Amino acid sequence: MRGGIRIGSISSIPIYIDSSWFLVLGFLAVWLSAAYTKLSPSFSLGYGAITAMLFFLSIAFNKIAHAVMSKARGVEINAINIQFMGGGNTVEQEAKDPFSVFSIAISGPLVSLVLSVIGFTAAWLIAGDVIFSSNPKTIETLPDSIGSIRTIWTMIALNIARINLIFGVFSLIPALPFEGGHILKAVVWKLTGDRFTGIRWAARSGQFCGILTMILGGLVMFSSPIGGLFLIFIGWFLFGSAGGYLYLNNLQQALLDINAEATMTRDFRLVDAEISLREFADKFLLMEEKDANPIYIASSNGRDRGIISAGAIRNIDSSEWQAKSLQALVKPLDAIDTVELKTPISTVVNLLEQKQLRYIIVRSPVGSVAGVIDHGDVIKALDSKLLWRIPSEYVKQIKADGKFPADFRLVEICEQLKEKQ
Predict the structure, then answer these.
(1) Cβ pair 160, 51 in contact under 8 A
(2) Which of 129, 182, 299, 318 yields a CA-CA distance of 20 to 30 A from 388?
């Protein structure tokens, strides 16, 4: 989602910063200034602000690298959103090949590691080999040898180097939602030729890492309750996030694997196209239940002719019903949107949504009506495949409403699948 304050653009991609960053930067500046108070009492807050700004730029460069690489690999990016928690680049589509996925995923960690190298190099150029000493007392004597100002800039460079090193290394963990998970997905996709298998491996790895982190948190709680709870929270977040990838992956695969033949029902009525409108009204329309909305298919001489627009009978004077045949209400099959038996239900969902249809006709190889599919039929087929265990009453309600529940995100997911194919 695009939001915040626009601060510029790169490669024609607008860059937005979330307003929460002003509070975050202010807090970080005050918090970090404590480390510089002894060396520079009068300007400690200024050095804290410089460190906080460099921290912000590290995150910004990471997201910009993702966006630039995405655009280079043909993935459309609408905006770069720099947020402290969550958020990211507004992506119009996803990468369509494993090398693109790998390139985009590796760009962020590489930027973090390069910034880390720059930070350590800057510290070394300022203070010399002493920065690599493991003896804290050696570091503490820096002001005596190089002065307070150079020591402060050494501390700033080391802080940024360490932060980016942590970001770079942890983001390479081969588990979703880390960038390393996307790298693992790309590698498995390349080896197996199946994108869904790649996502499944990376998501399972993410869940495994989440479980291990929660177990570690439970053990740590005996010595550090707060640290243990923090690890449990992180593990729970990892497990849930990876589970979200796995759910989406399984749903996308089901939408492509299930076809119209496995989804359709025979919930329609065949009516002889040669009968009069009066006979049709007496035998069918007057016998309908109050809330029923059946689908009528006109047939004659052993062939299905089309859909009967029952509501159109109101446009014909009742005095003409006996003289006119049902052909007056028939809309030919070739004039409406239909699908074939092997059509994936992702295509069915797109048609139902784009055309605002209550149902769609499934035609057999010879052109006759093999079945019909409505919104409830799609949900029922997915329920059977993915074992959602949706109550039948809920499916009936979806059929009656004639639309997909928003929390299923079927329309959005099917649009994404359409772009990938």
Answers:
(1) yes
(2) 182
